[in-house]
Amino acid sequence: MIRDITIGQYLSGTSFMHKLDARVKIVCTFAYIITIFLCKNFWSLGLMVAFAALMTLLSRVPVRMLLRSLRPVAFILLFTAVLNLFYTKTGSVLFQWKFLILTDKGLYTAVFMAVRILSLVSVSALLTYTTTPTALTDGIEKLLSPLKLIKVPVHSLAMMMTLALRFIPTLIEEIDRIMSAQKARGADLETGGFIQRAKALLPVLIPLFVSAFRRAYELAFAMECRCYRGGEGRTRMKQMKLGVRDAVTAVCFVLLIAGVVLLGRFFPAVI
Amino acid sequence: MAVLEVRNLSHCYGAKTQMQVFAVKNVSLRVEAGELLGVIGHTGSGKSTLIQHFNGLLTPTSGEVLLDGENIFKDKATTHAARFRVGMCFQYPEYQLFEETVYKDISFGPRNMKLSDDEIDRRVRKAAQFVGLPDALLEKSPFDLSGGEKRRAAIAGVMAMEPEILVLDEPTAGLDPRGRDTILRLVEHYRTETGSTVILVSHSMEDIARMATKALVMNRGEAALYGTVDEVFSQGDKLVSMGLDVPAVTRIFLSLHDRGVPVRTDVYTNEQAAAEFRRLLGKEARA
Questions:
Q1: In chain B, where do the E strands start and end?
Q2: Is residue B152 assigned to a domain?
Q3: Where are the domains of chain A?
Q4: Domain range spanning residue B206?
Q5: Is the dihedral of CA A19, A20, A22, A26 positive or negative?
Q6: Same domain, B261 and B151
Q7: Which of the ends of chain A has fewer CB neighbours closer than 10 A, N or C?
Q8: The pLDDT value given to residue B19
């Protein structure tokens, strides 16, 4: 059923990761993703993986849920790994069969790419599992606020994101309802070729657009009635405050990056 | 023989998960040809889920739906055919309008039935006549109509399929009193004119009491009361205990009875109320 689609995969909880400030989480996630590409040997890679495992533990997100978020990238993962495995021609040859050449460097590159993709996807999944969509957009707004100086409408962008997320379930419900209504009039949405099916969707899409616009107007009026005038001078109900927890996390991340850089100096790169 | 028969129908959302909820539990009913069945119940009582089984939009978890004695879930073709035999008009049907002209929108159902052009034209014009849309409006865009006209155009879109059974889910929701009267009058007119069976889901006890021949009261997914309108509304106290609204006259008589006035409590129309008052006043005059 169409309503089984879940977007914004927040899992409610009270763990260390849940209580962390959204801004810290966003910055750290980005820092992690960049750092993982700085790893050139197994020592630094191991450190990064260990750190990801620690974060998973601190978030109390079940491993099963984390694995579920990896399922969509399984194909890309396999594809990248296989491609790297046979495409790297440098290094000593381990195995050769007709045109297929497997070198030690190729093997390492494949493993590195796979581990990188795995950890970057699971760390970003961890961010969305432990942060509500609202906190996420609030965090993005705060982080991007310096861009206001060069006239980027940061508040409007963040508000648009919040509203878009808010209306996803509403629109899914609406699609469901319109589909039932048209099916009741004999619309055939399931059979036929590609063109036929695209055409059959028109009776669903047109009412959907009409009602999306209607909702947008209604929402705009409702917001204006409550004196919404954009971000200028607007205060927040939930103030974002950085605490000890956030400071500790930031320090840990600085140490992590320093560790990766130092390990890169002391041990030779394998890729 | 019953046109529509429902046997021990249950529908369960989220079956085989921790969150399984029975929206409809073991409901059985028989609707004879030409009847008007009123379905009453709270939001979330399972009425909408129940009626979506009648034309095969939902498949029951258990139980069956028979049209003229034939199970509509027997095979795909039968289920598909049931869509045209049972015309379903959802709540706020005006949101399903999509074509460039009202005429084209009403003809959407008949076109899906693969009828001849002449037949489609005949049905569209007849349906428009039933809902009181003048010919001039047929060439307009449905988005240019007024709220009430849109609603009527959408109902015409279902009537144009000429279904044996017409199911209307809260056709008067969100309309002003005059709009409500228009819709209810046209439903009654349609029923007497075509002799088809009508199933009407409504919140308004007055409407059901006035129009229906039989009534079904849904409560927490179960058929709490089912019978003729007399049988159902004579149990006003039960309706009240389910948190349902009884017709205003019934409420008056129930509270008179509570205050010790010796009146009947199974009164649900103004005529019955008048008769009961006459009886009561006559008795007092003699005393």
A1: 2-13, 21-32, 36-41, 62-67, 70-71, 86-89, 165-169, 197-201, 214-219, 222-228
A2: yes
A3: 7-131+243-266, 146-225
A4: 1-89+164-178+186-238
A5: negative
A6: no
A7: N
A8: 66
* 3-state SS, residue B171: coil
pLDDT single digits (tens) A4-46: 444 457 888 889 999 999 999 999 999 999 999 988 899 999 9
Considering only the beta carbons, identify the residue of A174, A203, A211 that sits closest to B108.
A203
Half-sphere exposure of B193 (CA within 13 A, CB side): 13
Reported as a pLDDT band with limits 50, 70 and 90, residue B31 is very high
Does residue B130 lie within any of the structural domains?
Answer: yes
Look at residue A132 in the predicted model and tell me its pLDDT: 86
Domain boundary, last residue among B199, B221, B238: B238
Same domain, residue pair B171 and B66: yes
- Per residue in B49-58, pLDDT (tens digit) is 999 999 999 9
Interface of B with A (CB under 8 A): 52, 55, 57, 80, 83-84, 87-90, 93, 95-98, 108-109, 112-113, 143, 157-158, 161
ipTM: 0.86
Asked if the structure places residue B94 within a domain, the reply is: no
A122-175 tens-digit pLDDT: 999 899 889 988 888 889 989 998 998 998 888 888 888 888 888 888 888 899
- pLDDT band at residue A55 using 50, 70 and 90 as cut-offs: very high
Dihedral of CA atoms B191, B197, B199, B205 in degrees, nearest 10, equals 50
Q: Which residue of A has its CA nearest to B167?
A: A184
Longest dimension (CA), chain A: 74
Quick check: A18 and A59 in contact, CB under 8 A? Answer: yes
Query: Are B158 and A184 a contacting pair at CB < 8 A?
Result: yes
Residue B29 within any structural domain of the chain: yes
Question: Coil, strand or helix: which one is B223?
Answer: strand
Contact between A210 and B57 using a beta-carbon 8 Å cutoff:
no
User: Could you count the other beta carbons within 10 Å of the beta carbon of residue B116?
Assistant: 9
User: Whole-angstrom Cα distance, residue A80 to residue A100?
Assistant: 16
pLDDT computed for residue A226 by the predictor:
92
For A178, the closest of B96, B109, B113 (CB atoms) is B96
Q: 0.80 cut: is pTM over it?
A: no
Mean pLDDT over each residue of chain B, to the nearest integer: 89
Residues B132 and B219 in one domain: no
Other C-beta atoms within 10 Å of A160: how many?
A: 12
- B161–A186 CB contact, under 8 Å: yes
